[in-house]
Design brief:
By secondary structure, this protein is of the alpha+beta class. The chain folds into three domains: about 5-35; about 55-225, Neurotransmitter-gated ion-channel ligand-binding domain (Acetylcholine Binding Protein, Chain: A, Distorted Sandwich), CATH 2.70.170.10; about 225-349, Methane Monooxygenase Hydroxylase, Chain G, domain 1. It has helices spanning about 5-35, 40-45, 225-245, 255-275, 285-315, 320-349, and strands at about 55-70, 75-85, 95, 105-110, 115, 125-135, 145-155, 165-175, 185, 190-195, 210-220. The strands form two sheets. Strands 1, 2, 4, 5, 6 and 8 form a six-stranded mixed beta sheet that branches. Strand 5 (about 115) and strand 6 (about 125-135) form a beta hairpin. Helix 3 (about 225-245) runs parallel beside helix 5 (about 285-315) and helix 4 runs antiparallel to helix 5. The protein is elongated, with a radius of gyration of 34 Å. It is found in: Cell membrane; Membrane. It is a multi-pass membrane protein.
């Protein structure tokens, strides 16, 4: 075939490529026209149950009376409001507090007898909850670390495909005068999530693996670092510093050296009991436990070394015993400070 046939084949191939690219762009434009115009629309649709009726929720935290570490509970006073469309819906009747500490002491007081119609056609209802709430406290970093005080609300009848909660425009606020003794209050938050139950609870009419919409109100609180350090850690350091004075007592005064070490040891035991008496009996060591254990080992080590150097001094080597005391004092203090810093870094990182 001559040059004319070759040019014809090239022209046909180029024409097909142009037609193919044009068709691809046309299909892409058609698909893009059918997609949502912005990412906000996509985010709204993700996880939304089709046909579920929406209930707008919000809360105002009036007061937090106290936090009990031993029982993993706290006292709170808060308002919860709801708005919804449709006079046939009454979500306030089936709203349930999921984490009450003492059910008999939890009081829910409606602010109105009936739902209040709103200008947009919705209905408004508010409840004031007062009582104790159970919350899972993370105490491994005690006396530091953040604790999340939570109140969890859920509809006890309707599943997520029937009723779902959505957050109001300004869904949460806290009274600026609220204080929790011994803690700094962080920024509160409120979230809505679907909770999966892997049981039908024995109801033959229900399907298993039910999913319910849950509202979680969270208030983070933390111990002030400087004040807590002065109140809890400084006394330990003072006792350890006192115990280190054993090495400055002449080796011949063995009774005084032993008495100083025993006094430091008993003081640490009393301080540990007092500092940890408010904590629940757990199956793990909190940071303060480990710091006390290191302090016990330091005092025990000084007692063993003072016995050794005292016996050495009695055999005629008092000058060498004094030098050994000075050397061991620096070694023990360096090891104690290094281990304590390592423990705090491992727990607080």
């Amino acid at each position: 075939m001559g040059p004319t046939g070759t040019h014809a084949r090239r022209l046909i191939a180029a024409t097909l490529l142009v037609i193919g690219f044009t068709a691809c762009f046309a299909v892409a434009d058609a698909v893009a026209a059918d997609l949502p115009s912005g990412p906000g629309v996509i985010a709204t649709e993700i996880g939304k149950e089709p046909g579920a009726r929406e209930v707008v929720v919000g809360t105002y935290i009036e007061n937090i009376q106290g936090l009990d570490l031993a029982t993993n509970s706290f006292m709170a006073d808060l308002y919860v409001w709801m708005r919804w469309q449709g006079a046939d819906l009454a979500p306030y009747q089936s709203l349930e507090v999921m984490n009450p500490y003492e059910t008999w002491a939890l009081v829910g007081t409606p602010l109105t007898e009936e739902p209040v119609p709103q200008p947009d056609g919705s209905f408004y209802y508010a409840i004031r909850y007062q009582g104790a709430f159970n919350t899972a406290l993370q105490l491994a970093q005690f006396p530091f670390g953040e604790q999340n005080l939570q109140v969890q609300l859920e509809d006890q009848r309707s599943e997520a495909d029937q009723l779902t909660y959505v957050l109001d425009t300004n869904p949460i606020a806290i009274d600026p005068q609220v204080t929790v003794p011994g803690y700094d209050i962080g920024q509160p938050s409120i979230t809505v999530e679907d909770i999966h139950y892997s049981s039908s609870f024995g109801d033959l009419t229900n399907r298993e693996n039910d999913i319910y919409s849950r509202v979680t109100i969270t208030v983070p609180v933390t111990h002030p670092f400087l004040a807590t350090s002065v109140k809890v850690l400084l006394p330990i350091l003072l006792v350890v510093a006192t115990a280190s004075l054993i090495f400055h007592v002449p080796p011949g005064l063995i009774e005084a050296r032993i008495g100083l070490g025993i006094t430091a040891l008993l003081t640490l035991v009393a301080m540990q009991w007092s500092a940890l008496s408010d904590l629940p009996d757990g199956g793990y060591l909190v940071m303060l436990d480990v710091l006390y254990i290191i302090s016990f080992l330091f005092v025990l080590t000084t007692l063993i070394q003072t016995l050794a150097t005292s016996w050495k001094a009695r055999t005629g080597g008092e000058a060498s015993a004094i030098r050994a005391d000075e050397r061991m004092m620096y070694i023990d203090l360096s090891a104690y400070i290094g281990l304590s810093a390592l423990v705090m870094w491992l727990y607080l990182r």
